[in-house]
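Reading group handout, session on sequence-to-structure problems. Before we discuss, look at one worked example. The prompt was deliberately terse, the way you'd type it at a terminal:

> structure HK97 family phage major capsid protein

The input record follows.
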Amino acid sequence: MMKKQISVLPVMAMAATFSFDIQKFAEGATLSTELTGLIPDETATDIVKDVVRGSAIMKLADLEPMTTATKKIPVLLDGPGAYWVGEGERIKTSKATWAQVTLQAKKLGVIIPMSKEALNRPRIDVFEELKPYIAEAFYTKLDAAAFIGTESPFATNILTAAVNSGNTFTRGSVAGQNLADDVNSVMALIEADDQEPRAFAAHFGLKSSLRGLKNSQGDPLYLTSVREGVAEDSLYALPIEYCRNGAWDKTKADLIAGDYKKSKVGILQQIEYEILKEATLQSVNAADGKPLSLAEQDMVALKATFQVAFLVVKEAAFGVLRPAGFVG
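And the output record:
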């Protein structure tokens, strides 16, 4: 089996509901008997868990389970006010301000070429073996779309939200400021909009620069703690998540601060699959350098599709630290 030839399809512009019922896979059933269907519940759940573990945006954003491709959710924009009450006075009342927002799931696809012999193997074994590759393809594409807007079908992304709010600061643009001061400047822009930064996201290459930051008393600003056996990094006592999967565009942002709960990720847990026999895979090259033709190479491929939604609820809740010398 060719395990390393993973090709992510472009994110499809239109979401679609699944047309298949949950498949009950008989023990020992092979792929050759069912060329389309849904990946079994248990395996699909494991893939989604791996996507959450591997995705930076899914660790930070507010997660919304979805049972259909569209979901309307109420979002609190302004809370009710409190009032000072004099003796014998009637207590004033005020209403919370709510908005109805719509999560629209889009379809992500991954194609994994494999030998024809895989059709005669038990389906559950094939899915288990390909599980990490499917998850990696999904979370890499999702992070790129949600943080930076790369090939994104979504109406919003975190970087554009920060830019639209005017919350941008270029690293090294103020003489005498170090990286810690620059990060603080980004936080100040968000706070000027009456929002509170609660976390950071950054590319992994920035970690070495952040690790040595100290305050004026020489105390470290960057700390690592262990909670429930998992190491957690923090800066200015706020959690920081690194995008380790190659989805981050370092030319556009070093770090993005924000209240990430002001963004939503919707998840449809079902994962659909299809076995391809005749396709030519334009994004995978064979040994001769030409696009891989499954029929000519005596191969097949598994296509898996996953539906996910993303939405920024409050643009002013985010601010970006641009790389040094950035020119927009």
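Points for discussion. First: Residues 123-148 form the longest helix (26 residues). Second: The chain has two domains: 7-77+97-154+263-312, 160-261+314-322.
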